[in-house]
Design brief:
The protein has 265 residues and is of the alpha/beta class. The protein is built from ten helices and twelve strands. 50% of the residues are buried.
Length: 265
Amino acid sequence: MLRRAAVAGSFYPEDPAILTAVIEDFLAEADGTASEGPLKAIIAPHAGYIYSGPVAAQAYAALRPRAEPILRVVLLGPAHYLPFTGIAAPAATEFETPLGSVPVDRAALGAIGGLPQVVVAEEAHAPEHSLEVQIPFLQVVLGAIEIAPLVVGRARPAEVAEVLERLWGGGETLIVVSSDLSHYLDYETARRRDARTAAAIESLDVSGLGPEDACGYLPIAGLVQTARSRAMTVRQLDLRNSGDTAGPRDGVVGYGAWAFGEMSA
């Protein structure tokens, strides 16, 4: 079963050559200091590339020096279209983008299939952009990988953390959490709100994250809870909003990028 691209041509270019060139341009403009320090997980935004691509590129640029051991990406994002309870795995065996199809790690999904919060719901994946927009970046930066794509509905951070622990693995596994930050505030209010959210992420404070702070606050909170239990490091790579990239400043969407590392890495 193939999960076909839903937002190619709207959130990002449909032409493979143009898409690759756009991503490479974003990566070339990313801050070189992003590659410093250990890395096990990233948070990256998922809006249209013209708005969030430069911020997402800061996270993906950090992966390039570490691409060789990574074979599997556990990819989590929020549900924007279908309300449901739990964490949705796909029935599909491949996810399509203009750059080709990426196989789903069915063994990884099997490892979490017995958890009560995990459901199989292809209808949650079919229209969802939060995971899809990350995949072309992964294809350009990491090459041949498998993905374990999960859409997070109504779930507790502890339930997300339990899934992450099951799939944590070693150097072959990367965790990617897809989320934008505040939505449709004026520019200065958004900057203040997003700065508070960034402080909660960087201090590993799950209680400081709520639905008004980020559309993907639940997958973020699950990662933060796991990072706290594992005494991980967190580095902010970028923090901007659509008023800084490509939009007006009267109703912006916030974007941030973070890298999480294990002390032993």
